[in-house]
Design brief:
Layout: H1 6-21, H2 26-37, H3 41-51, H4 73-85, H5 90-104
Helix pairs in contact: 1-2, 1-3, 2-3
């Protein structure tokens, strides 16, 4: 069986968190979780166990796809330095920059 994507895992954790928040008894929460996501009882229990340690639901991020970019060496060096200094990934910085740039573009025509 394939591993869950980050998005799928976040959805399962948030569902488990919601069940625990509503104080659904553990056996019933396991049954609901396993039925909704087609999980084994053991997997459902693990999601509930992890969700019990959360203060709040986790952010569900949009799935990402790999792309290849060619950037000047100096730009890549600056990007790496910034990512390391801010505990971010280069991909998240590029995605944020592109969102900001594309959000400011006006449509022509």
């Amino acid at each position: 069986m394939a591993r869950s994507s980050k998005t799928e895992k976040a959805r399962k954790l948030n569902t488990a968190h919601g069940l625990l928040d509503r104080q659904v008894p553990l056996p019933e929460a396991m049954r609901r979780l396993s039925h909704r996501f087609e999980l084994s009882d053991r997997q459902a229990y693990r999601y509930l166990e992890e969700a019990s340690r959360l203060d709040r639901p986790v952010e569900v991020t949009e799935p990402s796809v790999p792309i290849t970019l060619k950037l000047p060496l100096h730009t890549v060096e600056l990007l790496r330095k910034h990512a390391k200094g801010h505990a971010m990934t280069m991909g998240s910085i590029v995605a944020d920059a592109l969102k900001a740039f594309l959000g400011t573009r006006k449509r022509h025509g």
